[in-house]
Amino acid sequence: MLDADFFRRWMTAAAASVDREAERLTALDSPIGDADHGSNLQRGFRAVTATLEKEAPDTPGAILQLAGRQLISTVGGASGPLYGTLLRRTGKALGDATEVTEQQLTDAVREGVDAVMALGGAAPGDKTMIDALVPAVDALATSFRAAAAAAEEGAVATIPLQARKGRASYLGERSIGHQDPGATSSALLIAALVEASGE
Amino acid sequence: MKMLINVPETVVADALRGMAAAHPELAVDVENRVIVRRDAPVAGKVALVSGGGSGHEPLHGGFVGPGMLSAACPGEVFTSPVPDQMVRAAAAVDSGAGVLFIVKNYTGDVLNFEMAAELAEDEGIQVAKVLVNDDVAVTDSLYTAGRRGTGATLFVEKIAGAAADEGQPLERVQSIARQVNENSRSFGVALSACTTPAKGTPTFDLPPGELELGIGIHGEPGRERRPMMTAREIADFSVNAVLDDLEPRNPVLVLVNGMGATPLLELYGYNAEVQRVLSERGVPVARTLVGNYVTSLDMAGASVTLCQIDEELLRLWDAPVSTPALRWGL
Known about the structure:
- The structure holds two protein chains of two kinds.
- Chain A is mostly helical.
- Chain A has a single domain, classed as Alpha Horseshoe (Serine Threonine Protein Phosphatase 5, Tetratricopeptide repeat), CATH 1.25.40.
- Chain A has helices at about 5-30, 35-55, 60-75, 80-95, 100-120, 130-140, 145-155, 180-195, and strands spanning about 1-5, 100.
- In chain A, strands 1-2 form a two-stranded antiparallel ribbon.
- The longest helix of chain A has 29 residues, at about 5-30.
- Chain A is globular, with a radius of gyration of 15 Å.
- Chain B is an alpha/beta fold.
- Chain B is built from eight helices and 14 strands.
- Chain B has helices at about 10-20, 85-95, 105-120, 150-165, 170-180, 230-245, 265-280, 310-320; strands at about 25-30, 35, 45-55, 70-75, 100-105, 125-130, 185-190, 210-215, 225, 250-260, 285-290, 300-310, 320, 325-330.
- In chain B, the strands form three sheets. A six-stranded mixed beta sheet of chain B has the order 1-2-4-3-5-6, with helices on both faces. In chain B, strands 9-8-7-12-10-11 form a six-stranded mixed beta sheet.
- The longest helix of chain B has 17 residues, at about 265-280.
- The model of chain B has no long low-confidence stretch (mean pLDDT about 95).
- The chains are: A mainly alpha, B alpha/beta.
- The interface of A and B includes residues 77 and 164 of A.
């Protein structure tokens, strides 16, 4: 069973990972975006950890919903609403249980990913965060480690794709050959599950 | 890269403090990043709120004032503002007649304004939206996020602002704003990349002998790179790209807009070539505006925006306006 402490560790690990990788995310965003994905997410996840320390919600659902709201209020750009929606909807799907099973988490993340697809209008293959998140959800039933590997593979698999959503889509064929920064940061978020579980 | 800044983290806040000092006629909330005309809310008047990433100055804060925007929300550099800013701005300017959100078609702006509209409506504020998408360099919205909103934003904000000042109702102000957008097209070129304060190096690598055709306003490369061209050749390419899409039957408003680092000497020379092409294509020009209005930090280059107008739109364009960056008729 996964309790509130696990979800706090997940968010803390995600924030630490974004901190570590901010420069790489920004570098990936430079040729096909506008070179701020790392700094924007860093600002958002720092706000998430600061708020979680202050408000200390005590259920998994409440932690993710609070984190999602913080991202929407601090990140801006497309990443704010998309990541915010992912966490908020996942949290909402978890309800107010004090502990959830791994299966419940998997189902909830799937709802969150569906909400992101509905909001951004992106499908797999569009060279967005969805390309990491969809395979991750499919692998979550196996293990966190399998989900992290699937997300990472999904992120790398965006390299040969032509972007059809977001700012990179304006480049047309010139977006081919670059790894999508949103898929990359999504892989970090999923990998943080492994850290949180201590696997 | 040398910049006249302290540290990248405070660039936007520092600029807002300086703007507040220069323009006491605006109420600038530095902490919450909202710029409001000081006399708002104006009784009975529809309020106009726009916003977007910083780095495009004078857009949007420079267009706040009588005859144009009621409030603007600047985001981080090239990053859309967050819904909290937009809701705060809407609440500050709504007189009960409703608020029109003017949104450039960039995914971040669209998503954040959508969320803000929902939140504002929860607070009892009537909200309408208009999406600006004028950039002909982005052709197929099936395979892209759709046409970007660029130079036409100025036309929409000015003309809808005049309609709101006349006391026209929200629905009418929105439909005028849509009409302006539907009749506007833009095309931009870059002679150099720009440098964001956070990154500190140019966003893309553009060799001295080349230019980018079909750029947006966020330092992203364009659709095509070519050997450097003369102002005459660039005007031929750009104006024809716009006219092939717009095919105006009425006179047009012309905006020859600098991207930030191109001096007026060059912009006026470029405008001469733009007017030549329009004349050759038989398009009458009603009014022309030349200057740096919708910029991309320190990028060199220019965009051309044309807006096909009728008598009412021309009257609204000519109506008095008093903002930091656009001021006439008063």
